[in-house]
Amino acid sequence: MTTATNLKHYPMWIGGKPVDTKETRDIINPSDESVAATVAMGNAADIDAAVQVARETFQSGVWARKTPRERAAIMRRIAAAANDSVEDLIEAEMSANGATVRQATGFHVGYALLHFEYFADLAETYQWKRPTQMSSFPTLGQSVVHREPIGVIGAIAPWNFPLLLTLWKVGPALAAGNSVVVKPDEHTPLSILEFARIAEENGLPAGVLNVVPGEGRDAGARLASHPDVGKIAFTGSTQVGREIMMAASDTIKKITLELGGKGPTIVLDDADLDLAVDGVLYGCFVFSGQVCESGTRALVPESLHDEFVNRLVERAKAIVLGDPSDWDTDMGPVINGKQRDRIVEYIRGAEADGATVVTGGVQATGPGFERGFWIEPTIISGVRNDMRIAQEEVFGPVLSVIAYQDDEDAIRIANDSEFGLAASVWSRDNERALMLAERLQVGSVWINDAHQIDCQLPFGGYKQSGLGRELGPDALDEYTEAKTVRLDLSGGRESKPYDLLLSHAPK
Ligand code: NAD
Description:
Blueprint: E1 9-10, E2 12-14, E3 17-19, E4 24-28, E5 35-40, H1 44-60, H2 68-84, H3 86-97, H4 101-125, E6 129-132, E7 141-149, E8 152-156, H5 162-175, E9 179-183, H6 190-201, E10 209-211, H7 216-225, E11 231-235, H8 238-249, E12 254-258, E13 264-267, H9 273-285, E14 297-301, H10 305-316, H11 337-352, E15 356-359, E16 378-381, H12 388-391, E17 398-404, H13 407-415, E18 422-426, H14 430-439, E19 444-447, E20 466-467, E21 480-488, H15 499-502
Helix pairs in contact: 1-7, 2-4, 2-6, 3-4, 3-6, 4-5, 7-8, 9-10
Nicotinamide-adenine-dinucleotide binds at residues 156-160, 165, 183, 185-186, 216-217, 220-221, 224, 235-237, 240, 243-244, 258-261, 292, 393, 395, 421, 461, 466.
């Protein structure tokens, strides 16, 4: 723990106020290893306290029994206030996870607030009460399916898009009237702590949104197994996703899991190669490749392989790696030293398996890179899909190029993965690309594009990339219970199949 006194310190946020802990953690800026802030580290007991507050707040009805329109109005006010503090949020985000200023402004914070507003709108357009016709019992009556809040939602988030991926959970949870306990990643809790304070200053009742930074195995595990938590919304690695599923099973919690990926980008032989080259680079290297749905496997026709690799290398050399706060910088550092070493190990492993590093492949050195965690944009050619580099998630700026024979072969390779989050297809022939999209076992397919996540469209994974969907018009289904209410309008007089039980009773 650092002792500097001019550093900003972030306590936990529980019950509408800052709450401190004995244990604190230094938040390290990945670009220069400086201490950006200190943060309180909550443990299982702090999670218990936060869940209790969230539960009492939920039961009080102070948020849950507001009308959807009232909740939407407060959420919009929060989004507007957060937009007024956008510089602070960007700083909080960048200083903890190393995003470039362009990336943090547009995606990390810009999208996060835009998507939060989308959930405010959804609170108003969502069908909270759905009248339905009964088909099996044609009696005089009315059936209505009510969508009701679940109670306390536990949200566990990763470090790569700390605010965005947390608000994908907090947004629908609040829109539906739930209370929330967030367990941010231990490296990146700053932006959501800022957001929780802003939310409460702008009308969110105390205790509705609570944030407990802490270690996954302690605070996170307790949240995932807490008996008073009705649902866990998790984004992170597939391995931890499995553990969350097990922890949630004791009390049969609802869960949504957004997990890892190993995205294929299929370049068809009729693609515009200039566009495809830039698309492949954008699909893989944005935010130093630390995006779950990145296209990390480029599938290229064997006949075009060498030419395509040469073009990729030429264009990749123009990517400016460096100081994330400089608006000219294209790519920043990776999150920490452990992750940097892991990425290098994957690259060396690919070489040992017979693949060739054609550019990058090492930690960046020289002026500007003395401190921090830097990996040059790395392209590996001659990769076979059964190699470890093609099967496991590296989560760094590493692109594997794999040659294929024909469309069938491309589909086979693309689907030969335990993951199924997203894929891209590059082609001039829309019909051919759409046919291919139908055969890909992934939650999103982008044709002649990459990273096209839209808050109005469901996002999530096939296979071991996840469970359930975030975003889109049905997102609130994941944060509500369905209750069917049947009202007999005949005053009980209309004939009913009671003879099944009372056939011998006097009429
Ligand atoms: P991680 O799984 O290590 O950690 C994610 C969160 O889980 C952190 O808050 C961590 O503290 C917590 N955690 C760890 N162990 C836990 C446990 N036993 N119980 C409860 N919580 C626990 O993932 P990461 O390294 O932070 O993030 C990278 C991973 O996230 C990658 O695999 C990436 O693909 C995935 N990801 C997926 C999506 C998506 O939408 N599918 C988006 C972003 C990241």
